[in-house]
Design brief:
Blueprint (H helix, E strand, L loop, with lengths): L1 E3 L2 E6 L6 E8 L6 E11 L27 H20 L7 E3 L12 E6 L5 E4 L6 E3 L8 H5 L12 E5 L8 E5 L14 E8 L2 E9 L10 H13 L6 E5 L5 H9 L5 E6 L2 H10 L6 E5 L2 H10 L6 E4 L8 H9 L4 E6 L2 H13 L2 E10 L8 E8 L11
Parallel strand pairs: 2-4, 5-18, 13-14, 13-16, 14-15, 16-17
Antiparallel strand pairs: 1-2, 3-4, 6-7, 6-9, 7-8, 9-10, 11-12, 17-19, 18-19
Helix pairs in contact: 1-8, 3-4, 6-7, 7-8
The structure holds S-adenosylmethionine (SAM).
The site of S-adenosylmethionine has 17 residues, from helix 4 and strand 14.
Length: about 400
């Protein structure tokens, strides 16, 4: 972010502390803020590198934000964003470092799922930054080799707006799903509706998860196992615990938690997408104390609380929009001894932590993971615990 004569300029392809020549790409004199692209660098940051990808430059691909910084500095920049959001939105000072996922130090060839846009000529490419322009590419350095070798970039895709390429464990070849689906494809919008993800975490085989080709699954190959390992370690579920897995997808956390609370406990997975909830049911079918509700979290929580249900532990992993103030208040009413919140947007996480604080929970720990190297995205895992009541404190808790 730069300032010029009182105007704020959001500059792509620059780094903090640099002096660069900026071409304004959006907005005009008099606007409160404008956007621009660094077109030449007069004094470079010591963390600047030549972007490995030739499409990571002005007016080209809009996908990667940080190719021009060392991976270590990318993580420092993300940590600074997390700290700033927590200070601004949660009113908490956090000391956080962003850790690479699964030893991924170069940040390349990790993306197991890419949705390529299709142009009027039928060729697949990647979108420009904040633009409908489709940039023709012959490679994408953050995509896995099987995604690129799938032939998606050498095929003409007439009649669809995009092609989603998914590189999972099974089948061996990536699945290519035209979007929207051509007539006659199955209801999930794919020519191939299902695929399987094998999961090993901490060197131990966890299981095989069946998921929809276009259903949610972490895109970095090391992310699902890292987050599962961390959630299990942070939640400390034990036999007898009653656990709610909210925004549960196809059961990434549900399966392992179901095993840990046995005997005597139960896990309830709540997921709005009925296909994902069906897959969750399938993936946990061997655990008869695991139940699923294909419902909105907020609606399900209201109904559970009306029945007097409480929980020992809660894990939630909402989409980018976060859970929201009302849902956080409902979660607090469950009375859990610990809530583990997995978040892909630090701003909505910080807002929700603030909401939890208002309901008597405090931030016990925060960690951050670089599950999306070369982009500005960062995944956080926060632990919330009830704050003991202190007589005379205005919040009362
Ligand atoms: C980030 S994904 C997490 C899935 C799962 N925990 C995993 O890691 O594979 C978020 C999930 O929340 C679901 N979802 C979004 N809004 C929801 C809501 N209001 N109630 C229930 N589920 C919701 C989405 O369908 C998606 O499966």
């Amino acid at each position: 972010m730069a300032r010029h004569e009182g105007q704020v300029i959001f500059v792509r392809h620059a780094l903090p502390g640099e002096r660069v020549l900026v071409q304004v790409t959006e907005g005009r004199v008099g606007d409160r803020f404008v956007r621009g692209d660094a077109v030449s660098v007069e004094s470079a940051s010591p963390h600047r590198v030549q972007a490995p990808c030739p499409y990571a430059a002005e007016r080209l691909c809009g996908g990667c934000d940080f190719q021009h910084a060392t991976p270590a500095h990318q993580r420092e920049l993300k940590a600074a964003v997390v700290r700033e959001q927590f200070e601004r939105l949660a009113g908490v000072d956090v000391d956080v470092t962003v850790q690479p996922v699964d030893g991924d130090e170069d940040g390349l060839r990790w993306r197991t799922r890419v949705e390529f846009a299709v142009g009027a000529d039928g060729r697949a490419g990647l979108r420009g930054h904040r633009s409908t322009t489709i940039i023709p590419v012959d490679d994408c350095l953050i995509a896995t080799r099987p995604v690129i070798d799938s032939g998606v970039l050498d095929t003409e895709w007439h009649g669809c707006a995009a092609v989603d390429v998914v590189d999972a464990a099974h089948p061996d070849e990536p699945v290519l799903v035209p979007v929207p689906a051509p007539a006659g494809a199955d209801a999930e919008g794919g020519l191939v509706g299902e695929l399987a993800r094998d999961l090993t975490a901490d060197g131990e085989w966890v299981g095989e998860y069946v998921v929809s080709a276009r259903g949610f699954w972490q895109v970095h190959p090391g992310a699902a196992s890292t987050f599962l390992t961390r959630v299990v370690a942070l939640l400390e579920a034990a036999p007898g615990d009653r656990v709610l897995d909210l925004y549960a997808g196809s059961g990434l956390f549900t399966m392992r938690l179901g095993e840990l609370v046995h005997p005597g406990g139960f896990v309830l997975g709540v997921e709005a997408d009925p296909h994902a909830a069906d897959h969750g049911r399938h993936n946990t079918a061997h655990l008869d104390h695991v139940e699923w509700r294909a419902n909105l979290v907020e609606r399900e929580l209201r109904s559970l609380l009306a029945q007097g249900v409480s929980a020992d532990l809660v894990v939630l992993d909402p989409p980018r929009a976060g859970a929201g103030k009302e849902t956080m208040a409902l979660i607090a009413r469950l009375g859990a001894r610990r809530v583990v919140y997995v978040a892909c947007d630090p701003a909505t996480l910080a807002r929700d932590v603030r909401a939890a604080t208002d309901q008597g929970y405090g931030l016990a720990s925060l960690e951050a993971w670089d599950a999306f190297p070369m982009t500005h995205h960062v995944e956080c895992i926060a632990v919330l615990e009830p704050v003991p009541h202190r007589a005379g404190s205005p919040a009362g808790r």
